[in-house]
Design goal:
elongated, about 240 residues, mainly alpha
Length: about 240
């Protein structure tokens, strides 16, 4: 059977959506995804005006709550992007934390207690840089960078398993763009290859990298049709 006609294989996010968070497999998949994309959430909270320490505390609390509650029940199946779900969830979380802090400051029906900046209920804030990207833009930029890092690590692992770590380290600049001071002739000399063989090796490396990027995206979307669309969106976030 042609691979294009095969059913979309269950991935982390499709498992979560199918089970709506009820099964151990779905909870484990959600935990893995949350661990993988901790960075974008932290970047969003940080860009929203919180200092580094408070942002880390809030990010930890956010994920702890997310993994405890049946939040997946609120996901719109028509969208089915983990990125969209996580961004919406962290926005609601920060709004809830803000409202909770204000209730405490107003008394909340309990004896008044002073709240120091930097506590869990009233996290410290910093003045936002008006020239900095928006929290949403920073979230998506960090999401794209995280995805690229994960794909790059998987390619490195494949080369290491094959006993070709030297190949990967030599050719990696053609993936990361750090090739100003490195010519293919020099790479060929280091690897004892012809320049033609190096060109082929670079092409193969780029193809592997792109496939791993798509595989990583597939873990976070509902169906195969969304992979290329998500890839385009995330590449735009890096511009």
């Amino acid at each position: 059977m042609d691979s294009s006609s095969e059913a979309f294989a269950p991935t982390h996010w499709t498992l979560v959506l199918r089970a709506r968070g009820d099964s151990p497999e779905a909870r484990a998949a959600l935990s893995d995804l949350c661990g993988a994309y901790y960075g974008p959430v932290l970047a969003f909270i940080r860009r929203s005006g919180h200092d580094e320490e408070s942002a880390r505390d809030l990010a930890q609390e956010f994920f702890a709550r997310l993994l405890e509650r049946p939040s997946i029940d609120t996901v719109d199946p028509k969208r089915g992007r983990f990125r969209s779900f996580l961004l919406g969830a962290v926005k609601h979380f920060l709004a809830d934390m803000h409202e909770h802090a204000h209730r405490l400051k107003r008394g909340g029906g309990r004896p008044h207690e002073p709240i120091d900046a930097g506590t869990d209920t009233s996290p410290g804030f910093e003045l936002a840089d008006p020239t900095a990207p928006s929290p949403e833009r920073e979230f998506e930029r960090k999401w794209a960078l995280t995805l690229l890092d994960r794909a790059l690590a998987l390619v490195a692992e494949e080369y290491e398993t094959a006993g070709k770590s030297e190949y990967f380290e030599t050719l990696k600049p053609w993936l990361t763009g750090d090739i100003e001071d490195l010519a293919q002739t020099e790479a060929a000399r280091r690897l004892n290859l012809t320049e033609g063989a190096v060109k082929v090796a670079i092409h193969r490396l780029r193809r592997q990298f792109r496939q791993h990027i798509k595989n990583e995206i597939a873990q976070t979307v509902r169906d195969r049709a969304q992979v290329d669309e998500e890839l385009h969106h995330l590449l735009q976030a890096l511009l």
